[in-house]
Amino acid sequence: LARELRGTVDLPDGSVITLGGGGAIVDTEAQTAALTENVLIETSAGYRMTAPDLTLRLDRAELTSQGPVSVLTPFGTLDAGSMRLSRGPEEDAAYRLLFNNQVRLVYDPSQ
């Protein structure tokens, strides 16, 4: 178990994702890292997401939270019961961010 883990993901389009948590369990054989204890993700596009935990696939660009997530966006707030960031199956596919389970978006045009 690691404490106070921080990391940065540089995406091919130049975007940057910074993430961290109070603890982490890395399984090199399964190629996963489980971030725990108040995970924080921030993007260069101005998004800030918190979640109680997050699972990363180390062999491909994939992030999953099975628990609730809260997101502060440039245009408001978003809350959901789970989320997944993954890349499509095509070689040069874009990344997809999918929110599920009672998604609530509050749009604030003044932000």
Quick overview:
The protein is mainly β. Helix content is 0%, strand content 66%.
What is the topology?
Layout: E1 2-10, E2 16-27, E3 32-43, E4 48-57, E5 62-65, E6 69-73, E7 76-80, E8 82-87, E9 95-100, E10 104-107
Antiparallel strand pairs: 1-2, 2-3, 3-4, 4-5, 4-6, 5-8, 6-7, 7-10, 8-9
Unreliable stretches, pLDDT < 50, 5 or more residues? Answer: none
Rg estimate, integer Å? 14 Å
The SSE string, one letter per element, is EEEEEEEEEE
State the shape.
Answer: globular
Largest sheet: 10 strands, antiparallel
Mean pLDDT: 86
Explain how this protein is built.
With 111 residues, the chain is mainly β. It has no helices and 10 strands. Strands 1, 2, 3, 4, 5, 6, 7, 8, 9 and 10 form a 10-stranded antiparallel beta sheet that branches. The chain is globular, with a radius of gyration of 14 Å. The mean pLDDT is 86.
Keywords for this structure?
111 residues, mainly beta, 10-stranded antiparallel beta sheet
